Amino acid sequence: xxxxxxxxxxxxxxxxxxxxxxxxERADNVQVIAEAGTAAAAYQAFCQTPPDxxxxxxxxxxxxxxxxxxxxLLREPRARVLVFSxxxxxxxxxxxxxxxAMGYVTKASAPDVLVDAVRAVAKGERYLSPDIARSLALxxxxxxxxxxxxxxxxxxxxxxxxxxxxxVRAVAELLCLNYKTVANYQTIIRQKLDADTPAxxxxxxxxxxxxxxxx
Length: 215
What we know:
This protein is an alpha/beta fold. Helix content is 51%, strand content 13%. A six-stranded parallel β-sheet has the order 2-1-3-4-5-6, with helices on both faces. Helix 5 (111-122) links the parallel strand 5 (103-106) and strand 6 (127-128). Helix 2 runs parallel beside helix 3. The mean pLDDT is 89.
């Protein structure tokens, strides 16, 4: 691809964004045209100047990158989103792909992998970093059931926020939902996960990487 690929870079750490901007712009046909540190800022930047590719972290301080991606795709279904995350658990990659991401790259990947992924996604191709592709393949081969797959996308997002320590009221405010609606979701989540106590819910959340969401 000879034309310049415009990128919106979304990560909540400014120093990290500087490093990835430099990495991407070393490629002769990639230009970072905007940056954002929150889901809200990402949405605003996307609306102002739609990029060819959105490079989106999952761990954001307001709502997750998965929720941010859902909002972007509601506005522009053809948006091309590449998730770039520290999470190497299959559940996050599965969720991202199901939500409409065209690619998933872990931050443990070699630097050139991110550039290759951006170029592939810009052409409309799917891309998985080797480590996450391996994890997904092993999960399929083993036939191991992931209890988190029982949750809908909305339920997963609420479970993630609750696991991070947000109250029901705080989750309602973040997701612009009614308090009672979130309280009902909390009950459904615990039923689906067979988590009859808060401690059991937190244990399940920890097992599936939901507590490792500060990066």
